[in-house]
Design a protein that fits this description.
The protein has nine helices and seven strands, in the order H-E-H-E-H-E-E-H-E-H-H-E-H-H-H-E. It has helices at residues 11-29, 46-53, 65-77, 114-124, 140-157, 171-178, 199-206, 210-219, 225-239, and strands at residues 36-40, 57-62, 82-86, 99-105, 125-136, 183-196, 246-259. A seven-stranded mixed β-sheet has the order 3-2-1-4-5-7-6, with helices on both faces. Strand 2, helix 3 and strand 3 form a beta-alpha-beta unit. The longest helix is centred in the N-terminal third of the chain and has 19 residues, at 11-29.
């Protein structure tokens, strides 16, 4: 992944909300007992532990030491045999061909060098292996709110506009990325609903997200945090799908790359 510290705040809360997507990814990868699985950007271990429940031999890899500790504790509490190790998408601590399945649930999409990440995932996947990842579609209320936060931080820092991110959600982009390795790419679309008692309650919870914590550290001292929160609240209120509470739906893709 990047050098950003995903151990900030309480990513555990986000991980709980993302578990349904992790289940979709693991179902698509369909690891079986005895297969070797690596979960890249495993966070607190959602996908890694689901694969371990199937009897796979699992290694979760993440750059955030605190999240790895949370994953280890959860594995122990559930009596699951899984290993968790520091690493990132362009530096997976496995030997060549050591994995039958490479998973990444909204993890590799943060890699600073997509080509290096793809090369590394291919390197560790053995003959007949498959790579299965999920990526958000750049649409919907959550995307607009996150983009507003990123723009506010960029403006506060006086930083130049970032280049467009790699299109992990597009089959054509992924096909081009994996073409040098003769991997065929298929993409399926899915969706995930985020709910809360109200738009404001959801926004307050999201304030504990690592990216939000980092943004608050920049905007708070400048007195610009409240204005961003109100802007994000307006986005969520306008997109709310549940007039009695709160619900927004985010779309994502599950992409599979496997040898032809």
């Amino acid at each position: 992944m990047s050098t950003f510290d995903w151990g900030l705040g309480r990513y555990e809360d986000t991980a709980t909300r993302l578990e349904p997507a992790a289940r979709v990814v693991v179902e698509a990868a369909a690891p079986v007992a005895g297969e070797r699985v690596v979960d890249v950007g495993c966070g607190t271990g959602n996908a890694a532990l689901l694969a371990a429940e199937r009897g796979a031999m699992v290694t979760g890899v993440d750059p955030a030491p605190r999240l790895l500790d949370v994953a280890r504790a959860e594995a122990a509490a559930r009596g699951l045999d899984a290993t968790f190790a520091p690493g990132h998408a362009a530096g997976i601590p496995l030997e060549d061909g050591e994995a039958d399945v490479v998973l990444s649930v909204f993890g590799v999409i943060f890699a600073s060098d997509p080509r290096a990440a793809a090369a590394e995932m291919v390197r560790v996947s053995g003959p007949g292996g498959r790579i299965v990842l999920s990526a958000w579609l750049p649409t919907g209320a959550t995307h607009r709110a996150v983009s507003a936060a990123a723009e506010a931080v960029r403006a506060a820092l006086g930083a130049p506009a970032a280049p467009p991110p790699f299109a992990w959600h597009e089959r054509t982009a992924l096909a081009t990325l994996f073409a040098p390795y003769d991997l065929e790419v298929t993409v399926e679309e899915a969706s995930l609903a985020f709910t809360a008692s109200s738009p404001r309650a959801y926004l307050e919870e999201q304030g504990e997200h690592p990216l939000a914590k980092a943004g608050q550290a920049v905007l708070g001292p400048r007195g610009e945090g409240d204005a961003l929160r109100e802007r994000m609240l307006a986005i969520y209120e306008a997109a709310n799908e549940d007039p009695d509470a709160f619900r927004v739906t985010s779309r994502y893709v599950v992409a599979t790359a496997r040898r032809r």
